[in-house]
Amino acid sequence: MFICWVALGQAAEPPVVPDPFGLGERLAVIDHLKTAYAVAVPPGEDLAQVRARYLRAWTAASLPDSAEAAAAQAETTRLRQRLDLRFHCTTPPDLDLAGLRACWLRLENAEAARAEAALVRRSREANPAVDDPVPAAQPPLAVEPKKSVTAAPVGPGVGISAAPPAAPHAAPHVAPHEVDAVKVTPVPFSVPGVSGAALFTGPKTALCVQFGEERGTEFHNIFASLYASLAAGDGPPDAVFLLGHGSGVSINGAPISEHLRANRAFYETFGGTRPAKHLTCLVIASCSKGSPVQMSAMRDGLGYYPTWRVATADRAYATRGSVVAAFAGIADRTDREPFRGIWRGGRDAALVGSVGEVGIDGAKGNMQYFELP
């Protein structure tokens, strides 16, 4: 049989305590307190006192941990604000944290699918004879002829021009020396996938990290071109450049999110040369063929989006031209207005491209399209 609980004037009442052996309500509740809550009842307490003790134990066990609850509430508020800022999405007030996370993932995947569909559509419009674009014949991040790279917009926006410098260059692993008033200093960094790291210091500072071995001097040229745009631009005050051959969300076999998460302190201190602070700019120059989430991997690894950021377009190849042009396109922009653009080119525009974004806490503007020669 079950014992009927007499309400104690509380808005919430604990469940009734079963009494399968007919002990009576007082003894049944005492036994339940001992087995379920590890609460001992002093001898001599009457039924009313036992009931009150049970109510206190049940209430304490039912309340969530205050610190955990506060953290969950703060995360819920922050995610709701980010959904509104990035996707202009007003969420139902009763949607919990799990629901907000699912909503973010759904909107992000839908955004990636729309961007990819737009790329395919524009590529086919520009190349009506090509029904199914095939991967570019050139190797990813291959050395291209040293010439100015001019991008003409095919959507809203303005053209950008970036002329990679023909000045001498230095690999991350060489000894310190001066290159056009830019000092290149090796930084010790021995982790899986990484072959070298160096600080470029001059008008601004860049931490350049090389994954794997380069083919000829291709990585030298790209680091020099990226630094030239950084130094000349009005945008980020400093930057981190990650460069290497990869596929999906890995560079030379090192998963982007795991690598950033494990080495966040190294990057935020620029190899131990400054106090730790969030990165303002991060460029990932590695192919993303087979994966739609390289930019998200950046956020998942660091725990935030740098204000200025470049990553390879969804399921695409990266070339020197696309990476350099995308960074040049954001390096001269301030953080006052969100921006997002994609730079792609050649017959395989749907498969070659880099995305540049500017925006605090992941904010970004509507996609603008730029075409490389």
Main beta sheet strand tally, sense and closure? 12 strands, mixed
Structure class = alpha+beta
Number of helices: 9
Distance separating the two termini: 84 Å
- Roughly what percent helix? 25-40%
What is the molecular shape?
Answer: elongated
Tally the structural domains: 3
Radius of gyration: 29 Å
Strand content: 15-25%
Counted beta strands: 15
Main-sheet strand order equals: 2-1-15-13-14-12-11-7-6-5-4-3
**Arithmetic mean pLDDT:** 74
**Can you write the helix and strand succession as a string?**
HHHHEEEEEEHEEEEHHEHEHEEE
Question: How does this model look, in words?
Answer:
- A 12-stranded mixed β-sheet has the order 2-1-15-13-14-12-11-7-6-5-4-3, sandwiched between helices. Strands 8-9-10 form a 3-stranded antiparallel β-sheet.
- It is built from 9 helices and 15 strands.
- Helix 1 packs parallel to helix 2, helix 5 runs parallel beside helix 9 and helix 6 runs parallel beside helix 8.
- The protein is α+β, with helices and mostly antiparallel strands and 373 residues long.
- Helices cover 35% and strands 20% of the residues.
- The termini are far apart.
- The chain folds into 3 domains: 63 residues, no CATH class; 60 residues; 233 residues, no CATH class.
- The longest helix is centred in the N-terminal third of the chain and has 30 residues.
